[in-house]
Design a protein that fits this description.
Belongs to the LpxK family. GO terms for molecular function: lipid-A 4'-kinase activity. Its EC number is 2.7.1.130. InterPro entries: LpxK (IPR003758), P-loop_NTPase (IPR027417). With 337 residues, the chain is of the alpha/beta class. The protein folds into 2 domains: 213 residues, Rossmann fold (3-Layer(aba) Sandwich); 77 residues. It has 12 helices and 13 strands. The strands form 2 sheets. The chain has a 9-stranded mixed beta sheet with strand order 3-4-2-5-1-6-7-8-13, with helices on both faces. A 4-stranded parallel beta sheet has the order 10-9-11-12, sandwiched between helices. It starts with 13 loop residues before the first helix and ends in a 12-residue tail after the last helix.
């Protein structure tokens, strides 16, 4: 499902007001589930990368960046993910023989940075990571999941969209109220350019109530690809396809057509062939995101260019200090099996 535009309209509108009672019920159900949970306490630190709203906010690039930061400290970091879009219940460690249909696209991406466990039952996934020698666990999403005790919770938000109209689903984009969610958070990471960051602070700064605010931006990796002037058909099935299209235009690519799909939408052979036919008809190159490339049929991946992006933080100091407090100082080589 694509988010309705009034979810992100600060003025709300009549649909938001009409659905407000259902939103209150949704937020109440989240609060009750959290209150009744009996969380598993891991033997090592658990760092949760989550959000308050539904949809893409940059959690996966944040998890990648944290995995690299921890690995650089010599920490045997493992990732536990629900594996959205995959059919395996787990816990199962993601391996080279898995496809997105089995474990989901995000775990496939993350497995290049750290061992990844897919588990619908997050506590079972954490226990599997512990048994395999994890010195720390990154919980990809799961901020509203009561099954695992968190030692550090980072709430990620798209700076341009913020928390929309501030209402819970279905009246707005939130999984829970802002105040309720931030009361369990240790820091907020807003991702976006300088203008979006300033807008976020103006609107949502008071709601942070002194909670540390980190600033980051997703930037393309230098791949040597001459994007300027490239005729391209760009497609994306992520939370915000337009952000990907804007990044390509910013690199100078000429987008002769764009195709926006639902987040995690399967990209089977028939759809892939239609995209290839569109590109051939327009005399253009197909371009997509890393996450979408993971869902393409293997035989077609070589015919599609991928634009990788990585998270760059304005200041790693607060994160590094939090990792130090958790005892995750540099400790030699990675113990991952």
């Amino acid at each position: 499902m694509r988010a309705p535009p009034w979810w992100y309209d600060p003025r709300g509108g009549w649909p938001a007001r009409l659905l407000a009672p259902l939103g209150a019920l949704y937020a109440g159900a989240t609060a009750r589930r959290l209150a009744r949970g009996v969380p598993h306490r891991s033997s090592g630190p658990v760092i949760c990368v989550g959000n308050l709203d539904a949809g893409g906010s940059g959690k996966t690039p944040t998890t990648m960046a944290l995995a690299m930061r921890l690995s650089g400290r010599g920490v045997a970091v493992h990732v536990v993910s629900r594996g959205h879009g995959g059919r395996l219940a787990g816990p199962v460690r993601v391996g080279p023989g898995h496809g997105a249909g089995e474990v989901g696209d995000e775990p496939l991406l993350l497995s290049a940075f750290a061992p990844v466990w897919v588990a619908k039952d997050r506590a079972a996934g954490v226990r599997a990571a512990e048994a395999a020698g994890a010195g720390a666990v990154l919980l990809d999403d799961g901020f509203q999941n009561p099954g695992v005790a968190k030692d550090l919770s980072l709430v990620v938000v798209d700076a341009a969209r913020g928390w929309g109209n501030g209402r819970p689903i279905p009246a707005g984009p939130l999984r829970e109220g802002v105040a309720a969610g931030l009361s369990r958070a240790d820091a907020v990471l807003a991702i976006g350019d300088a203008a979006a960051q300033d807008d976020f602070v103006r609107r949502w700064g008071p709601a942070l109530s002194g909670l540390p605010l980190l600033r980051g931006e997703l930037r393309p990796l230098p791949t040597g690809m001459p994007w300027a002037g490239l005729r391209a058909v760009a497609f994306a099935g992520i939370g915000q396809p337009e952000r990907f299209f804007a990044t390509l235009r910013g690199l100078g690519a000429e987008l002769v057509a764009t195709r926006a799909f639902d987040d995690h939408q399967p990209l089977g052979p028939a759809l892939a062939q239609r995209l290839l036919a569109d590109a051939a008809r327009l005399g253009a190159q197909l371009v997509t995101t890393e996450k979408d490339a993971a869902r393409l049929p293997p035989a077609l991946r070589a015919r599609v260019l991928t634009l990788p992006v990585r998270l760059e933080l304005e200041d790693w100091g607060p994160i590094d200090a939090a990792l130090d407090r958790l005892g995750l100082q540099a400790q030699g080589s990675d113990r991952s099996p």
